[in-house]
Amino acid sequence: MRKRLPGKPGPLEVPCPLTIGRLARAAGVGVETVRYYQSRGLLRVPVANGGFRIYPAATVHRIAFIKRAQVLGFTLDEVRSLLDLEDGRNRRAIQSVAQARLDQIENKLSDLQRMRGALSDLLHRCKQTGPAQACPIIETLAGGSSPA
Fold this sequence. Notes:
By secondary structure, the protein is mainly alpha-helical.
């Protein structure tokens, strides 16, 4: 038996009852991922009923939320914070989490641009030097000089 989730985007059909294996399949993740998310406090562990744990269908959407947040670069700790704010009422807190992530991304981009410039310069210098001279890339990596 399959149940369509009301009010959710897309034609997602979820098998019922939703055991951990069916949940993982419906969410496109492994059972280990579901258990890991549970251990990190991102998903609740339902009480066993008749020897099986039955998950609410909304858990599939919660996993999708987690995966989309990871694609945007959020850590699982940040995802947990966002899930705590999922109702959307505390916009300042949501914005704070998102701004902190954006600041980290900007810092990484600056670092990557600096590394790109240094490596580009080293590569250019390596191409310009003859075999009688030390390779600037190797020399820099060996600690003989610092990158530009």
